[in-house]
């Protein structure tokens, strides 16, 4: 069973601010450097992480299975912003064109396993894809992988060193729904390996 919990705005506001500030570090400056590989070296993504980071299947489905259904989405922030430069380039946006940006935490057994950021151009939010603007706590992955028109671009990889958690490995790719793009970035927390059952 997938759990959906709600928090009062007052009790959650400080947590949202802390996480949002940290995520700005993930997607800007020296951490906003993404690479693609024909064959991914172990020095870039260690072997223990490759089955997760390089998996092109539904991450939502895998997290639900790995946590025996004790999974939920916590929305940290969703609003219209100017994406980072590399995000603009990946999506072919005009310079400083705003897009809908959604940042979430994917929790298994109440621990953060993945932090994700989606950048959705305004032009993508038409037809059935208008639903992307009102997902709430529903997982984006479930929507993407249920679409018969979904196509996924190449995986781009990234990593950074967290002073408390060690190396954090990330990936991103452009998805296409009805040939309309959106960019999804995901960072895998250490809990993925330490707590995973699958």
Question: Can you give a write-up of this model?
Answer:
The chain is an alpha+beta fold and 198 residues long. 26% of the residues lie in helices and 31% in strands. It contains 6 helices and 7 strands. Strands 1, 2, 3, 4, 5, 6 and 7 form a 7-stranded antiparallel beta sheet that branches. The longest helix is centred in the first third of the chain and has 19 residues. The radius of gyration is 16 Å and the shape is globular. It starts with 8 loop residues before the first helix and ends with a helix. The N terminus is likely disordered.
Please report the number of helical segments: 6
Mean pLDDT: 87
- The sequence of SSEs as H and E is HHHEHEEHEEEEH
**Strand count, sense and closure of the main sheet?**
7 strands, antiparallel
Distance between the first and last residues' Cα: 16 Å
Task: Tell me, briefly, the overall form.
Answer: globular
**Structural class from helices and strands?**
alpha+beta
Helix percentage range:
25-40%
Tell me the radius of gyration. 16 Å
Strand content: 25-35%
> Which blocks of ≥5 consecutive residues have pLDDT under 50?
1-9, 11-30
What's the quick description here?
By secondary structure, the chain is an alpha+beta fold. Helices cover 26% and strands 31% of the residues.
What keywords describe this structure?
198 residues, seven-stranded antiparallel sheet, 6 helices, alpha+beta
Summarize the SSE layout with pairings.
Blueprint: H1 9-27, H2 47-53, H3 59-66, E1 71-81, H4 85-91, E2 99-108, E3 111-121, H5 140-145, E4 151-152, E5 156-162, E6 166-177, E7 180-188, H6 191-195
Antiparallel strand pairs: 1-2, 2-3, 3-7, 4-6, 5-6, 6-7
